[in-house]
Amino acid sequence: MKSLSFYIHNLYQNQQWLDFILYLGLGLILTLSLMSVVALVLVYAERKIAAHFQCRLGPMRVGWHGTLQTVADALKLLLKEDLIPKAADRFLFALAPFLTVMAALLSLSVLPFSLSATLSNMNIGLLFLSAISGYGVLGILIGGWASNNKWSLLGAMRAGAQLISYELSMTLSLLSIVVLSGSLNLNEIIASQAQGWWIWRAHLVGFISFVIYIISSTAETNRTPFDMAEGESELTAGFHTEYSGMRFAFFFLSEYVNLFIVSAIGSILFLGGWMPLHIGEWESFNALMDFVPGPIWFLLKTGALIFLSMWFRWTFPRLRVDQLMRFEWKFLLPLGLINLFLSSIIALGGFYFFP
Amino acid sequence: MSQTIESFKLLLENAFSEPLTYLEASQLLTIKVQENQLFATLKTLKETLKFDALIDHAGVDWPNENKIELIYILFSTHHNQQIMVSADIDRNQPTPPSVSSLWAIAEWQEREVFDLLGVTYKNHPDLRRLFLEDNWVGSPLRKDYKDDFILERPW
Amino acid sequence: MVTLNDRISCHTPNQDGTTTQEYFINMGPQHPSTHGVLRLILKMDGETVNDIIPVLGYIHRGIEKKAEAVGYRQQVHLTDRLDYLCALMNNWAVSAAIEKALNLEVNDRIQTVRTIIAELQRIQSHQLWWGVFGMDLGAFTPFLYGFRDREKITEIFEKTMGARLTMNYFQPGGMMYDIHPDFVKDIKEFIKYFRPILKEYEDLFSGNIIVQERLKNVGIIDAQTALAYGATGPVLRASGMPLDLRKMQPYGAYSKVNFTVPVGTVGDSWDRYQVRIQEMYQSLLIIEQLIDNIPDGPHMTMKYAAKIKPPAGRYYTQMETARGIFGTFFVSDGNDRPYRMHFRTPNFNNLWSILKMAPGGRVADLVAILSSIDLVVPDMDR
Predict the structure, then answer these.
(1) Which residues in chain C are contacts of B2 at CB distance < 8 A?
(2) Shortest CB distance from C229 goes to which of B105, B128, B134?
(3) Range of the domain at C43
(4) Chains that contact C by 3+ CB pairs under 8 Å?
(5) Residue C184: pLDDT above 80?
(6) Residues C48 and C136 placed together within one structural domain of the fold
(7) DSSP assignment, residue C43?
(8) C208 touches chain A (CB under 8 A)
(9) Chain B contact for C315, CB < 8 A?
């Protein structure tokens, strides 16, 4: 288990400060560029996927099949006039998008793309991730409040209530995997799935917690059918109604990066992360699968989950805010608790498939 | 349950104690009433003859005769019959009674007539301008209405 | 005089000494789900709507005043601009009013073609409503499905009429031009295409649990209240009152065809949704019965240039458009221009039932209700 982050840690231990700062800076640049690339690719993918769901072509003009469309849009947003409403709280208004982006950035830094390509291999990675995703709501709340617009405030309040509620069942579903794998370290969780992914290895428990995770992560990323905070037909645009230009782009960017992050966590916990697909005793098939490098596997699995989330978005209508809360507190949360209990029994008894 | 006009007229006349005046120059069956009889007539039509829908309410300005004619078009889902009630009111002091206590929709139809013809209804719950701004001067649908936007046409 | 400011500045202190308070929030004139420039001032307590004050007039064009300045033949062009989604039905209503005033009988061909086109337009209008309804509930995909299929009907119209939205096709005395040679073939193809698609609409949207949760028992109004509040059309029929002028006072070729009037039972948004979906099936049925035997004959029974001078008097004719009763009331003084023209528009009268439906619900419910009433704002403001 010799990964990049251990190397950095060693640098810190041996007081090689110059190298240490160099690596840290390099990591930061990598994460930042990863973030923008992820956002650009996902925005393009969403537009194309939506278009094909709706029997149309989507962006086709800028670049081959519109591939440069998102780049052009990003440039446009960069050059747009940055408006701050007269009655807004200027400091908080400017702060909110950065808080949101910061949350996304911090979560990206702990994701293991492969065993070695992990910027920071924390032993409490999962705890860190759930803490950060709770912190992301702060930007939305502050943004909605600082806009001094009643629709924005309504959106922010909805987002606050929704994110905090769905955080619970999301954490519960994560916990059942922690119980099964016996670790909070993301790389160790992946390693524990060498015999089979948790989605099927732990009987029904893994699958139920996967479903709970998918639902609550959709709510966590504020996407349809849980896009209460934006709800464009109800609240015009929710918490970012008053934002324009780059500040709006930051909200937009973090929304897509968050989508990537929750899908990545889903693939790490339930689908084996960078583990290649192995089927039982098929030795030659397994050997063939091993040729595909880890990051590719990771991105493929993450992409599949992202596609699922986009499929939801372009199929389902939006829930009402009280129905959303009822669903969480009266159905999802009890289910998550029961599931956690069952997973502890399975973990204690060792009743896995392929033990 | 549709009836012929004649049998319906009979039903109509039985419901009222006084004889009715019909307006001939009209396509629909039209009753002509005085302003002081307006509310009572409409009330009888609603409650005795089950005209449960006020389909339309409009006003017509007749400056030469110094009157505003109010038109009520009623529809009965029980008889599948329609009737028009016409009442002439004073043009300078148009204060007919509001019928919004009989049909809720009258509240807004009357607001429209107030807005465009300047008819101030008595006992109206919320008499405000409907389409035009609150500080608009004049009543556009009156024939002698003038403002800067109206073009004089050569024909 | 009472103004709007007096209505929204009234402040009700809390009786129980709590510190929460109601607030006013502007929904519109620029809001995605008011479909135009309708402005609703909502009195809200958190997310709950307690009171609604509709403010109209943002697209008031004085059509009734304009109508007094133009001849009878030109009235048709004004009615297109009322409810632009039922432009042809409005054309028909005003043409029929003038024909009645002139005691003019139009031939069977004109009646049949008018009926077919009116029913096509009813489908077209409901398609757009279905798409927008989906979008208001937060699903974007139905919007594009609805528009995709609406395009087919628009193309049929374009072939015959040369216009896509404001057609001005029906004239007093007949139609502007005869139907396109492909008219019958195109419509048959459309019916064959659209029947499975309508099933797909229901599979995509009606069966969805979220849709049902959002619509059932939301915005309930009973038939008598709806009638008193002026509602007609699908809004009233969803409450269980089978008031459909096509059945009750048949006009055009409706007396020759078999169809049923779909009615709801509860009067909630779900019933209004179902009534419109069923109406699309019924419209297809009506068109199918008429399309094979369009009688021969001229498409116009009047000279085009003739000045129309109805005898002095008061005239009222009404018709069932996709949204309810469209009435044309006019007073003639024997001239070639109406002395007074008044349009009884369905949307203006349908709007007010939200005052009974929405209070007590959430903002999201209000959006669903507004969409289930299917409002077209230019029709309200005139």
Answers:
(1) 248
(2) B105
(3) 4-55
(4) A, B
(5) yes
(6) no
(7) E
(8) yes
(9) yes
Measured between CB atoms, which of C25, C138, C141 is closest to A318?
C138
Residues C234 and C320 in one domain: yes
Other Cβ atoms closer than 10 A to C6: 12
Of the candidates C138, C145, C365, the beta carbon closest to that of A317 is on C138
- What is the least distance, in Å, from the CA of C248 to any CA of chain B? 7
Confirm whether C307 is domain-assigned: yes
Who wins on pLDDT, B52 or B25?
B52
Q: Which CATH superfamily is domain B5-92 in?
A: NADH:ubiquinone oxidoreductase Nqo5 subunit (3.30.460.80)
Size of interface A-C (CB pairs under 8 A): 79
Q: Based on the fold, state whether residues C198 and C96 are members of the same structural domain.
A: yes
What chain C residue is nearest to B102 in terms of C-alpha separation? C228
Distance separating alpha carbons of residues A101 and A321, to the nearest angstrom: 26
Number of domains chain C contains: 2
Q: Does residue B140 sit at the C interface (CB-CB below 8 Å)?
A: yes
| Complex ipTM more than 0.85, yes or no | no
In this structure, the answer to whether residues C163 and C89 fall within a common structural domain is yes
Q: What's the whole-model pTM score? A: 0.85
Domain membership flag for residue C315: yes
Of A56, A236, A321, the CB nearest to C32: A236
pLDDT in tens, A315-347: 888 888 888 888 888 988 899 899 888 888 888
The answer to the question of residue C62 being in a domain is no
* Cβ atoms of B87 and B35 closer than 8 Å: yes
Residues of A with Cβ-Cβ distance to C141 under 8 angstroms:
50, 53-54, 314-315
Which residue on chain C is closest to B27 by alpha carbon? C315
Q: Which residues of B are less than 8 Å from C380 in CB distance?
A: none
End-to-end CA distance of chain C: 24
Kindly report the average pLDDT of chain C as a whole number: 85
**Closest CA–CA distance from residue B28 to any residue of chain C (Å):** 7
C-alpha C281/C-alpha C198 separation (Å) is 8
> Cβ separation of C363 and A319 shorter than 8 Å?
no
Taking alpha carbons only, the member of A139, A106, A89, A144 closest to residue A28 is A106
Confidence check: pLDDT of A4 > 70:
no
Same domain, C369 and C253: yes
Query: CATH number for the domain including C266?
Result: 1.10.645.10
**Start-to-end C-alpha separation, chain A:** 22
Is A47:A59 a contact under the CB 8 Å cutoff?
yes
Q: How far is B7 from chain C (nearest CA, A)?
A: 18
**For residue A35, what are the CA distances in angstroms to A65, A317, C380?**
23, 29, 49
CB nearest to C329's CB, from B52, B56, B103: B56
pLDDT band at B1 (very low <50, low <70, confident <90, very high): very low
Instruction: Give domain status of residue C344, yes or no.
Output: yes
- How much is the pLDDT for A145? 87
In 10 A of CB A72, how many CB atoms? Answer: 14
In this predicted structure, what is the pLDDT of residue B29? 80
Shortest CA distance to A346 belongs to which of A215, A216, A214, A208? A208
d(CA A159, CA A175): 23
pLDDT recorded at residue C14: 60
Q: Which of C56, C228, C329 lies closest to B71 in CB terms? A: C329
Q: What is the SS3 assignment for B90? A: strand
Buried b (16+ CB within 10 A) or exposed e, C324-359: bbbbbbbbbeeeebbbbbbbbbbbbbbbbbbbbbbe
Name the maximum alpha-carbon separation found in chain C.
Answer: 77
Interface test with C, best of A153, A226, A232, A234 (most C CBs within 10 A): A234
* Contact at CB, C329 and B127, closer than 8 angstroms: no
Q: Which of A197-211, A214-228, B106-120, C11-25 has the lowest average pLDDT?
A: C11-25
